[in-house]
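Supplementary notes for students who missed Thursday's class. We covered one full example, reproduced here. Read the sequence, then the structure, then the short commentary at the end.
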Amino acid sequence: MKFSKVHIMQKERDPLNLAGLPLVEPPEDSWPQIRQTLLRQNQRQRFRRIAGASLAAAAALTLAIGLFIQQPAPQAEAVKTPPALDSLIVLSQQLENGIRSYRDEFGGLPTDALVYQVELEDLIAQVDDELSVRPDSTRLWSQRVNLLLDLSQLYENQLRRDYHRMASL
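Structure (token representation):
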């Protein structure tokens, strides 16, 4: 079999004979699907942030009302806790549930925030120890609520950072 000069030059330019392969259409663009997925995730995160902020605002309002508006209790019910203490306990429970839902949904915090998380949780545990001795201490419950608010804020700040990173994509 003899090869012509043109055939040899063509072999040198296209040694694998790729020009002879049939044309194939490129795959479908996946960007619209990726965009929709990111938008849905952003909407969910925005909803959670709004819910967390609403919870914090409701907690602060409940605390303020409980501290500034104290109703006199009847003498027969002297063993009841004061309204401010009840408000602090309820607020503490709400904040704990919010933090638990953050952990369930998003997992742990990154290592740069983990130090603060552990420190806050340690302080909460110390307050809990004191509360086991004096469960009717308004000062201790208030301190616990403030620590839980700080911990909740730590999670919300991380969510905000994650949202900005995703939004910049």
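Commentary. The two ends are 58 Å apart (CA to CA). DSSP finds five helices and no strands in the chain. If anything here is unclear, bring it to office hours.
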